[in-house]
Amino acid sequence: VPSHSDFSASTPSSLRDLFAIDPDVVFLNHGSFGACPREVLEAQWRWQLEMERNPVEFLGRRSAELLYRARTALATELETRAENLVFIPNSTTGVNIVAQSLTLEPGDEVLATNLEYGACDATWQRFCDKQGARYRHVDIPLPLKSHHVVDRIMAEVTPRTRLIFSSHITSTTALILPVAELCAAARARGILTLIDGAHAPG
Ligand SMILES: Cc1ncc(COP(=O)(O)O)c(C=O)c1O
Known about the structure:
The protein is of the alpha/beta class.
């Protein structure tokens, strides 16, 4: 187990130095089990220690204001307002929150691409099964032509399509999908979109 000092800040000489990854390992997985930059780990430890100094003060009296400040900082980065942001444990939880908040009628449809992340796919499949709705995948052929993606998805829309679910950056292939155009096209047809934005802010 690495000690705290193994991660201490030093002037990074390369991107690799920004991470605590074993120098003997060529680590290519930034998804499911990706590594955090040292700077993030250090900030996380600082906050943990701060909380442990006086948990009641921290959680009971300070956390709401601190979280609001963090949302405000993030909002600036994402060019939105803090009121539009909610912190959640991870992307899968976010997809679950939206799925659980949606009322579908039997025969309604949720449309997704065939490039979605497994846990999120499983969430929609389970939710649709429970509601008697259909979860349908649209094949996105490679090589990718961005306008084709939107056209292909929208061509599969039916009068029963309630929501379109798509990744912004796909998990297995790191494709960047044209989600702004997709949202606009769906909105024009009165259809909700949920974008899985894991990786996108980075
Ligand atoms: C596109 C995409 N969505 C969702 C997830 C799931 O992320 P989490 O396990 O943080 O919920 C991943 C994980 O790599 C992903 O690549």
